[in-house]
Design brief:
Elements (H helix, E strand, L loop, with lengths): L1 E9 L3 E4 L8 E4 L4 E7 L4 E6 L4 E5 H8 E3 L1
Antiparallel strand pairs: 1-4, 1-7, 2-3, 4-5, 5-6
Length: 71
């Protein structure tokens, strides 16, 4: 696990997972909302802090496929 601090926002809706497992509970995160990427497992997942202060996980394939742009 590696900590980071990267402020971004969504360009389109994305799925946020409760844990770093595709089978975990998931929610949609709307377009244009800010989030802070706070860590990564250096493989497939990034841990994010959402606008409401809660934490979740984004699947790396989604995060690095142009869904986010640095603020």
């Amino acid at each position: 696990y590696c900590e980071t601090s990267w402020q971004t926002y969504t360009r389109k809706p994305i799925t946020i997972y409760e844990s770093n497992q595709l089978s975990s509970k998931k929610t949609k995160y709307k377009t244009g909302l800010p989030m802070l990427i706070v860590g990564t497992d250096l493989k497939e997942w990034v841990k994010v802090q959402l606008e409401d202060g809660k934490y979740g996980w984004g699947y790396n394939k989604k995060v690095y496929s142009h869904n986010y742009i640095p603020i």
